[in-house]
Amino acid sequence: MTTYLKKSRLPHISVEWLRSPWCILVSVVLGVYIGTSLPPVAEAIAPIGNLYLGLLKMCVLPILLSAISNSIGRLMQSHDAKQYVQRILIVFPVAMFGMSALAAVIAILTGPGRNLSAATLESLGGLVNQSSIDLEMSLTGPIPVEESGTNLASFILNMVPENIFLALSEGQTLKVLIFAIVFGISLGLIKNANTEPLFNILDSIYSAFNQVIHWLTYLLPFGLCSLLAVQLSRIGLDVLFSMVNFVVVTLAVFAAVYVLSTFIISWRAQQSLLAVLRAQKDPTILALATTSSLACLPAAIASLHEDLHFDRQTTDLVTPLSITLCRFGSIIYFAAATVFVMQLYQKPLDVGTLFIIIVGSVFAGMATSGVTGILTLTMLGLVLDPLKLPLDAVLVLFVAIDPIINPFRTLSIVQTGMATTAMIANVQTEPQLDVAPINQSV
Q1: Distance between CA 61 and CA 48 in Å, rounded?
Q2: Residue 112 CB contacts under 8 Å (≥ 6 apart), including other chains
Q3: How far apart are CA 290 and CA 231, in angstroms?
Q4: Dihedral, 40, 42, 44, 48 alpha carbons, nearest 10
Q5: What ranges in 270-311 are assigned the alpha helix state H?
Q6: How far apart are CA 139 and CA 167, in angstroms?
Q7: What is the rounded CA–CA span in Å between residue 218 and residue 93?
Q8: If you write DSSP's letter for every residue of 140-180 in order, what string do you get?
Q9: How far is Cα 185 from Cα 232, in angstroms, rounded to an integer?
Q10: H-helix segments, 217-296
Q11: Closest-CA residue to 221 (of 60, 48, 57)
Q12: Secondary structure tally for the chain: helices H, strands E
């Protein structure tokens, strides 16, 4: 009997080890070694990382649609609906403009584009000049053509899905989000007992795909090693050295934002910093490994509710909104990048220019909702155009260093989104059971 129990526990122990920090550390070290020393091997194992990322993304839209619709519907039927809507309308704008201002001020004080050496300027100029359309180099896929008429009005109009099934099939996350919000509001306003079965169905869909996400955490070491190796194999050291000032300043800003967000979550959750860091482990690793904020969404929700005990209904509603719509990481990056370009071209910076940078970066960051890869960087034109700065001349510089910046930009989107949720949601005095979690009132 004892022998049977020992044998039956061995597989369980070995599988659980795949989720341990030590296993993650081993996969990171192995990924760094393969990416820097064995580029052909990195390219050979790339499909493993792509498969893992695809499985994660497969779960995002069902979770997004079911969680948002269900949570908004329940919220509309609760007596605290007005309170939480007011919090969202205050916290979201303050957080976005605050992050943009913080990034711009740090970039101004540190001056990553000021007083560059002649050798650095020559290296940067050579990198730009060698791209007649060196922009055709693809880091995450083919480069889409930027529409000349892209502006705030067209962005708002394109948010509305004409066909929700087409939006789902094409993975148009922002349109799915808008549909889920409208559907949830209308469902909540019905206030009819006949809607309860639909709420239960949405809750079942949410729970089922969360279970899939849990299974995928066992495969994280393999996906992390592959994704990290591929990214490192595609980074040129010459590009890193020529842009080192900007890279260091940008990563420092992201680090500062991460620390600030962690303190906010710790304060709101009334838990120690160590407990918060432990709860943030999964979304942090996923953000750095997958460079997809949407793939981190289920882990972020689970961390806030299950580990930190924030209200489930509000967490399910606010977290997808803040991560998908606010795009704090992109806002921070655009503000720092614009200041860098101004310093590179030795343009004067006054209060009016700073205002344009802060406000423009917020709109440009929001415009990246639902887009990835090089198209994300082209949104920088929304800030540079009013300042009469050329996007085409500097875009290749940001494209070249994007494999370094992108993981930390994604982490900033996720981490700041979690902090924003913590500012809005209340902490439960007693953790709710995971049986029909969304059916609880706020």
Answers
A1: 22
A2: 245, 246, 248, 249, 250, 336, 339, 340, 343
A3: 10
A4: 180
A5: 273-279, 281-290, 297-302
A6: 25
A7: 37
A8: SSPPPPPPTT--HHHHHHTTS-S-HHHHHHTT-HHHHHHHH
A9: 45
A10: 220-233, 237-242, 244-269, 273-279, 281-290
A11: 48
A12: 22, 0
| CA dist., res. 10 & res. 357, Å (int) | 57
- CATH class of the domain comprising 19-129+159-440: mainly alpha
Output the six-digit token pair for 261.
């967000």
428 Cβ neighbours under 8 A, 6+ residues apart = 309, 310, 311, 312
The domain segmentation of the chain, as residue ranges, is 19-129+159-440
In the structure encoding, which two tokens stand for residue 193, read together? 């007992």
Q: What residues contact residue 405 under an 8 Å CB cut-off, 6+ apart?
A: 247, 250, 251, 333, 398
Walk along the chain (442 residues) and give the pLDDT tens digit of each residue. 444 444 444 444 457 777 776 787 788 788 878 887 888 888 888 888 888 877 877 877 787 788 778 777 877 777 666 777 788 888 889 999 999 999 999 989 988 877 666 666 665 655 555 443 333 333 333 433 444 444 445 556 666 778 888 877 776 666 777 788 788 888 888 877 778 888 888 888 878 887 887 788 788 788 878 877 876 776 555 555 667 888 888 999 999 999 999 999 999 988 888 989 988 888 998 888 877 887 888 889 889 988 888 888 788 878 888 887 788 999 999 999 999 888 888 888 888 888 888 988 888 787 676 555 556 777 787 788 788 887 766 776 776 677 788 889 999 999 999 999 999 888 876 544 444 444 433 3
State the number of CA atoms in the 13 A half-sphere of 269 facing the CB: 30
CA-based nearest residue to 121, from 350, 397, 306: 397
Residue 9 burial (10 A CB sphere; 0-12, 13-18, 19+)? exposed
Task: Give the pair of three-digit tokens for residue 20.
Answer: 């341990």
Contact yes or no for 284/412 (Cβ under 8 A) = no
What Å distances lie between residue 313 and 182, 225, 436, CA to CA? 17, 35, 11
- R_g of the chain computed on alpha carbons: 22
Please give the model's pTM, rounded to 2 decimal places: 0.66
Q: What tokens does 52 get?
A: 């893992």
Residue 96, helix vs strand vs coil: helix
- 226 vs 47: CA distance, rounded Å: 8
For residue 56 the two structure tokens come to 């994660």
Backbone angles phi, psi at 20, to 5 degrees: -80, 155
CA–centroid distance for 87 within its chain: 22
